[in-house]
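Quarterly update from the structural biology core.
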Amino acid sequence: MTKKKFYVSTPIYYPNDIPHLGHAYTTIAADALSRWQKLLGKDVFFLTGTDEHGKKLQNAAESKGLKPKEFIDKIVPKFKEAWKKLNINYSYFIRTTDKSHEDVVSKVLQKVYDSGEIYKGTYSGLYCTSCEAYYTEQDAPSLKCPVHESKLEKLEEESYFFKLSKYQNFLLDLYKKNPDFISPKGKRKEVINRVKEGLKDLSISRSSFNWGVPLPFDKTHVTYVWFDALLNYYSATRLGKNKKYWPADVHLIGKDILWFHTVYWPAMLKSAGIELPKKVFAHGWWTVLNKKMGKSAGNAIKIDELISYAGTDATRYFLLRQTPFGDDGDFSKETLIEKYNQELANKLGNLVSRVSTLAEKYGLKESISVLSSAKIFESVEKYLENLEFDKALNEIFSFIDSCNEYIQQKKPWETKDSKVLYELSNAIKDISILLSPFIPETSEKISKVFNFPLTLKALKTPLKITKIKKSPILFEKIK
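Predicted structure, tokenized:
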């Protein structure tokens, strides 16, 4: 039987500096979703990578006295190292300087040009190099970038335009017929209201710099970075066996790039005759101690620092548990350590330690458990369908609370009841499997103590009785 396919992507990240908390958040969420879909038995494709063209990167390279590719080649390995440290199990890492990607960009541009939807004109307007985005005076009345608050550059140059304006009705119809295309709901209203105001044709080329994919029909121009970058999601699926994965099931992105993904992207694909992705989900931003995170503010938490507080699994757990995925969240080291001590160490770690110690001493005797996880699984599946990671984790930890109450009530250290210990061990099996997309390293450790595989079949099958040895401490308390 052919497995159902599932394709999830992160945005591709600018390699102008090493990755930080903001990059980690989207990538951890995509990894947890990918692992969950694999647990359900699906054939999963998980894409991440780097966005390597544009004026911003050319400027960053020149400031270091390097050519753009030399500069980027030094930073890209830092992203791969960071994802390894965070236990990110991606399927493919794309770079927009890959020849295979650039070839797809050229082919799509040529196809759209041949259909008469690209024309030559003159662009005049306001531009933010950091965003690689154009703004109108309506968007930025102070003439400052609404995202970076930096002064916008006044540009006037010859440019090729994509007829975005003709796609207004198509886009509004798309949003109406596919209400989940833009998620969460609040973000959908923002986009719809703005599209209703009308769309201007999109400038898709630049001739004032040369770091980009040359237009196939005019080599004196390079492609506007968003027309190039968005196509990564498609170009990654043009390689060999990857073709079966298109269209994407969900693009996970930050809310600042929602417009590009829900307006430019579907219009580009429609123009090129390519099937559209099913969903774009825009998550919120993280502040640090209630201050906007950024390079200029000097508070961008890099990956090594992030995992130094309480380890990789605790970081993954905290970021997905602390705040609903579509909302903004605030990060503090103290809150992370508090969650680690109260929930991971006190609740989960303590349960595993007590049960494994008693199981080693008194053994297990099979029993029909009152600690059933069937309803928990159904709830977790429903929540993760909607990317409600915090609610899924809350459901699992409510079950952990029930197990801790049960052990206190039954007192197997006094009764030496091996049936009760079996019920608790079986529940720990289910908890570990359900938690494996979120805290994979810890789940693996628990599975070795109680001798079960981290699979859906094992979740739905009673635990086999084997010799149990006391678990090592999973979460050392942090003072």
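The two ends are 52 Å apart (CA to CA).
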